[in-house]
């Protein structure tokens, strides 16, 4: 039976550290990190993500500002809001909650965020910096995944990591991070064009599965003792639950946990880490602001 990698526990420990740093920033510099979240429309899932981010900010003593725009807001109106926040001295991080309504171009909006306030790590400048190993805001879910592997006590360097999924927000950046010199893993990236994924996962010391399909990874696809990071969040209809569904990851829990050395649960694994790394990035942005202010005075 494998060890459960407790994302809630790691997240709580990191948030306590962040809260301490925030109170030190207030005491030493008289400023607090500020995160602005723009929400266009009222998609229920987006509303609940935004609420969770605001609550997390409050818990660590950060300022959060929610900017709500109607679903029929124009791209130009949204871009104007982003530019206003780029210039706002109290705001260290800007997050535009995705997905956006169809009539708004996601790329144009992301591109408009100042790379210095891009705490999601989604702008081309930060993605490029990550790829060439420069200091940057690392994308939150991939960064959280690396922290979870380290927390499990696994030395990443020299290991073979297989990533399933090649999205721009999870698969590709996590593969890039694991291959960076700091992690130093050998990385294989699988996707729907990979004919036999099991031939790769069976050789893997670390498997990150981010396909958005329950059952993508099964125990018979794993090498005994492998570390499994399950990023997937899938709603499985379940009449026995009050809300009518339960959450499941992309890894089949029963068979994978019987073979893996350590595995993240869903929920309670990767999920809590994403917002934690967002707080982390916002803190780093505020530290950079304090440094700039000190060098100008
Ligand atoms: P996505 O944009 O839909 O990308 C899924 C990727 O998986 C695609 O590259 C796709 O390949 C690949 N894929 C799908 N089915 C596959 C299969 N059967 N075999 C191999 N590859 C397969 O999804 P995403 O945004 O990366 O998210 C992935 C999952 O993680 C979702 O369940 C999402 O809800 C979850 N998630 C969780 C968090 C968190 O904080 N916990 C954060 C982000 C995402 P192609 O490119 O060939 O189509």
Short description:
By secondary structure, the chain is α/β, with parallel strands linked by helices. It has ten helices and eleven strands. NADP nicotinamide-adenine-dinucleotide phosphate binds next to helix 10.
List the helices and strands and how they pair.
Layout: E1 3-4, H1 7-29, E2 34-40, H2 44-59, E3 63-69, H3 75-86, E4 93-96, H4 106-112, H5 124-131, H6 140-151, E5 160-164, H7 171-179, E6 186-190, H8 197-201, E7 206-209, E8 227-230, E9 234-237, E10 245-248, H9 253-259, E11 262-263, H10 271-296
Parallel strand pairs: 1-11, 2-3, 2-4, 5-6, 5-7, 7-8, 8-11
Antiparallel strand pairs: 9-10
This protein binds NADP nicotinamide-adenine-dinucleotide phosphate (NAP).
Taking all residues together, what is the mean pLDDT?
97
Describe the sheet with the most strands.
6 strands, parallel
CATH architecture of the largest domain: 3-Layer(aba) Sandwich
CATH structural fold name of the largest domain: Rossmann fold
Helix-strand string: EHEHEHEHHHEHEHEEEEHEH
**CATH classification class of the largest domain:** Alpha Beta
β-strand number: 11
**Can you tell me the residue ranges where pLDDT is under 50 for at least 5 consecutive residues?**
none
User: What structural class do you assign from the helix and strand content?
Assistant: alpha/beta
